[in-house]
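PROTEIN DESIGN WORKSHEET
SECTION A - STRUCTURE
LENGTH: 194
TOKENS:
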């Protein structure tokens, strides 16, 4: 019975990982071949009220194939790991990340710039995975967080200004969204033992 539960959990995570890849690749192909790149206008343009709703569209848009590829595998892995907590947890975490990451980028991103890319999601999902075990007192999730920190510690530099053309604001506020999600949601809590 327990093995069936593990399979179901992995299937759910796999669906989210594949769904993530299908969405970002489909959007990019439609943007490049159907619109000649014009959909990049739906990126976050800080302090432009007419683009505030772009916080929802920006994470699925990418500047070029290199940008898309760089966000594909890591994003799919984190989508899988968050998805293993269940559908509700995945959508709650993603909601916090998109809203907090998007609004933070919209406020602090710098007037005259445009921010696109799934790295907002990637940093948010990673931050959530790093700290959720602390907030829901799960040894297994805490250990996963430690392993991810060891494997992806290089990403932490992405929340600091420094690389031209990279939205450190989206990384930083996406990560903050992930931490807030870990603090707030309870749908990812491990089952209580009787």
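SECTION B - SEQUENCE
RESIDUE ASSIGNMENT:
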């Amino acid at each position: 019975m327990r093995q069936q539960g593990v399979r179901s959990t992995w299937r759910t995570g796999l669906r989210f990982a594949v769904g993530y890849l299908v969405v970002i690749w489909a959007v990019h192909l439609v943007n490049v071949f159907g619109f000649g790149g014009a959909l990049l206008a739906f990126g976050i343009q800080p302090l432009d009220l007419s683009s505030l709703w772009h916080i929802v569209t920006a994470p699925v848009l990418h500047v070029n194939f290199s940008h898309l590829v760089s966000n594909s595998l890591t994003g799919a892995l984190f989508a899988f790991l968050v998805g293993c907590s269940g559908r509700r947890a995945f959508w709650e975490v993603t909601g916090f990340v998109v809203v907090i990451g998007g609004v933070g980028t919209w406020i602090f991103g710098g007037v005259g710039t445009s921010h696109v890319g799934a790295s907002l999601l990637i940093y948010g999902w990673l931050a959530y995975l790093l700290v959720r075990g602390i907030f829901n007192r799960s040894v297994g999730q805490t250990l996963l967080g430690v392993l991810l920190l060891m494997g992806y510690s290089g990403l932490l530099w992405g929340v600091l200004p420094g690389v031209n053309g990279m939205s450190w604001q989206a990384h930083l506020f996406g990560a903050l969204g992930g931490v807030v999600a870990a603090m707030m949601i309870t749908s990812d809590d491990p089952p209580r033992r009787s």
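SECTION C - NOTES
The mean pLDDT is 88.
The longest helix spans residues 2-35.
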